[in-house]
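User: Sequence for Glutathione S-transferase below. Tokens please.
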Amino acid sequence: MITLYHHPLCPHSRFVRLLLGEYTIEPTLIEENVFERRREFLMLDPSGQTPVLVEHQTIVAPGANVIAEYLDETRGQSLGRHRLLPQDPIARIEVRRLADWFGQKFFSEVTDWLVTEKIYKRYIPRERGGGGAPDMELVRAARANIRTHLRYIGYLAGSRKWLAGDLLSHADLAAAAQLSCIDFLGDVPWDENETAKLWYARVKSRPSFRPLLADRLPGLAPSPIYADLDF
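Assistant: Structure tokens for Glutathione S-transferase:
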């Protein structure tokens, strides 16, 4: 049995949920508000960040990259030639490079600012840094940065079948996880890059994506096109 500690709008958690979906694993999901600093959660991962995966109540894998590697090592071969982290070492470099690009660079330049300012601030107590209106300077910076990343996605999707090569990989799921959070907020300028939009529509249409499209937060409705596969 697998349990995943996550937050619905944590892109790193969403990456892992997509991975689990591709492996047809239905985890027990436990929503974790990391700002609460729960003792039980900190005992699993002292960094206090989502996601954290627990299997058989004894194996603890903290962080999206660690979880992705663990799932590949324990289940990757079951996917055969459709393995999400390729067998070839050179192909693995490109998949890992892009997964890191979206998990680190894209997150720090786009998703972190938008999700923190427009979502997390609503739920974090003021004494813990929450409350108040979004910092629109950060929001505007993120909206400007996403255009550069969208062009890069369009370039990759236009020159390959998937972002890292001929097959769906960690790179596609990491990118889609980040974009899905911003799409929830309605801040992706899809009309600016048709190639990136078509690539995202392909990932969005996969069965592994369906649970993400059902995510809702109290008092916050997703954008009108969020769950639309023909957006």
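The chain has two domains: 2-80, 89-206.
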